Amino acid sequence: MGACQAVFARAPMENRMTYDELVTRLAHRTGLHSEVVKKVLVYLPDVLRDLPMGDNVRTPLGVFRMTKRKTRPITLPDGTTQALVQGMTVVKLRPGSRLQVED
Q1: Residues 46 and 56 in one domain
Q2: Strands 82-85 and 62-69
Q3: 31 with 62, same domain?
Q4: What is the 3-state secondary structure (H, E, C) of 74-100?
Q5: Is the pLDDT of residue 11 over 70?
Q6: Distance of CA 73 to the CA centre of its chain
Q7: Secondary structure class of 73 (helix, strand, coil)
Q8: 43 and 63: one domain?
Q9: Residue 88 maps to which CATH number?
Q10: How much is the mean pLDDT over the chain?
Q11: How many domains, in total, are found in the chain?
C-alpha cells in the first residue's frame, strides 16, 4: 500500500465514509487545510438557502435549486391514522454526471 492509500485504508466490512474521512480526503486532494474544508462544508447550506425561489446554481456536484414543497397527507406507522406534513422551502440537488454511479 502506498503512503496515500494507507491514510484512507478501511476495514473490509466497513462501507461508510465518516465526516472526518470526507474532510481529510477533500483536504488532501485540494491541498487546503482541513479546517478550511470544514468551514466550506459548514457554510455551504447557509449560502444555498440564500438562493431566490426558483433560482438555481450549477456546480460540479450538480444543480442546486430552491423550491417549495406542498403540504401533503401522510399515513402514520399504525396504518390507520393520517396527518398533514406542512409545506416548506427546501434546496434540492439534481446530481451532476460526476455524482451519478453506473450499475
Answers
A1: no
A2: unpaired
A3: no
A4: EECCCCCCEEEECCEEEEEEEECCCCC
A5: no
A6: 26
A7: strand
A8: no
A9: 4.10.520.10
A10: 85
A11: 2
